[in-house]
C-alpha cells in the first residue's frame, strides 16, 4: 500500500510530548504555541515564573505546562526530568532553545579608532562573557544530556513513526562575520551548531536525532530595539532580502517540519530561517 501524503498526517504533531527550554518568551514561546495549537503536549522550562505563567495562559488546548528551572543547574534539569517522567514516562522532542546575549558592539561608535575598539572590548566584564558560554553552550549541552533517557523511552513507546530528536536554537550570529551582538554570543552559537553536528553522529546509534534551527531577525527581548527601529525606517533588501523580520508563522513552519513525520528523515541538519540575511552580509555559512 502506498504511503499517505495527507498533509495532516505528514505534518501532524498530535500527542507529541515536547520540551522547550526558554519557552516563556520569544522564539521559544512561538514554537511552544505552534506545537500546542496543533495537538502536542508542551513543557516549557524557564527561570521566570511570570513569563511562564503568561505563556501557559496562551495555550489553545491547555497543554502548555510550566516547569521553573535554570538550564545551567543540573539539579534543576534533573527535577524537570523527574516531573515529566512521573507525568508521561517519555518525551519525543527536546528543543534546547534557552539562551542569552553577551557583551555587544552595539554601543561602539561607527568607524571607531583602534584605541576606542580596544577600550570597548577591554571594558567587557569577564563573568558576563563567560556566562554567555555557560548558558548558550553548557546549558544547552546539559539539557540534551539530562533528557536522553526520556528520549530513549519515547522511541520505545512507539507512539510515532519518526524517532526522537533534540533540536537546538542557534542564530545566524554563528555565521555572521560582522559580530554586532558580540563575540561571546556569536562564538557560543557557532559552538552549538558544531556540537549538534557531533551529537547527530554520537546519538545515531541510539536512534536519537539532532538538528539545529538557525534564526535571523525574529521578535524577542534581544532584538526588540533593532526591530522597532527597522519597522520605522524599513527593511531594505540590503538588510534582509525578504524585507521584513521573521514572524510566528515562519518559525512555526520550521519547528512543525522538523518534529513531524515530514522531518523524519532529517538528522544533522542546520535549518537557516533568516529571510536571506546571510546572503547579504559577510558570513561563513
Automatic annotation (TrEMBL):
rRNA-binding in keyword set: no
The record, for InterPro entries, names: NAD(P)-bd_dom_sf, Sc_DH/Rdtase_CS, SDR_fam, Sec_Metab_Biosynth_SDR
Q: From the UniProt record, which GO molecular function terms apply?
A: oxidoreductase activity
Q: Which UniProt keywords apply?
A: NADP, Oxidoreductase
Specify whether Metal-binding is a keyword of the entry.
Answer: no
Q: Which family does it belong to?
A: Belongs to the short-chain dehydrogenases/reductases (SDR) family.
Instruction: Please identify the protein, giving its name as recorded.
Output: Uncharacterized protein
Amino acid at each position: 500500500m502506498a504511503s499517505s501524503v495527507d498533509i495532516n498526517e505528514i505534518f501532524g504533531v498530535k500527542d507529541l510530548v515536547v520540551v522547550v527550554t526558554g519557552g516563556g518568551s520569544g522564539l521559544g514561546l512561538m514554537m511552544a504555541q505552534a506545537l500546542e495549537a496543533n495537538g502536542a503536549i508542551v513543557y516549557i522550562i524557564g527561570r521566570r515564573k511570570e513569563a511562564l505563567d503568561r505563556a501557559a495562559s496562551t495555550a489553545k488546548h491547555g497543554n502548555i505546562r510550566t516547569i521553573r528551572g535554570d538550564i545551567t543547574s543540573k539539579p534543576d534539569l534533573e527535577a524537570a526530568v523527574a516531573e515529566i517522567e512521573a507525568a508521561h514516562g517519555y518525551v519525543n522532542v527536546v528543543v534546547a532553545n534557552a539562551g542569552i546575549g553577551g557583551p555587544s558592539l552595539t554601543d561602539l561608535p561607527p568607524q571607531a579608532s583602534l584605541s576606542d575598539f580596544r577600550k570597548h572590548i577591554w571594558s567587557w566584564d569577564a563573568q558576563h562573557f563567560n556566562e554567555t558560554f555557560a548558558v548558550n553552550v553548557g546549558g544547552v549541552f546539559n539539557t540534551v544530556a539530562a533528557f536522553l533517557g526520556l528520549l530513549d523511552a519515547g522511541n520505545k513507546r512507539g507512539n510515532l513513526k519518526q524517532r526522537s530528536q533534540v533540536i537546538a536554537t542557534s542564530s545566524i550570529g554563528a555565521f555572521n562575520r560582522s559580530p554586532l551582538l558580540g563575540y561571546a554570543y556569536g562564538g557560543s552559537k557557532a559552538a552549538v551548531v558544531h556540537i549538534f553536528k557531533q551529537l547527530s553522529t554520537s546519538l545515531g546509534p541510539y536512534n536519537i536525532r539532532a538538528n539545529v534551527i538557525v534564526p535571523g531577525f525574529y521578535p524577542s527581548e534581544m532584538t526588540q530595539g533593532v526591530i522597532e527601529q527597522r519597522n520605522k525606517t524599513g527593511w531594505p533588501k540590503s538588510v534582509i532580502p525578504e524585507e521584513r523580520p521573521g514572524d510566528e508563522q515562519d518559525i512555526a513552519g520550521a519547528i512543525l517540519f522538523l518534529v513531524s513525520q515530514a522531518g523524519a528523515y532529517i538528522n544533522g541538519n542546520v535549518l537557516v530561517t533568516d529571510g536571506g540575511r546571510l546572503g547579504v552580509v559577510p558570513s561563513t555559512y
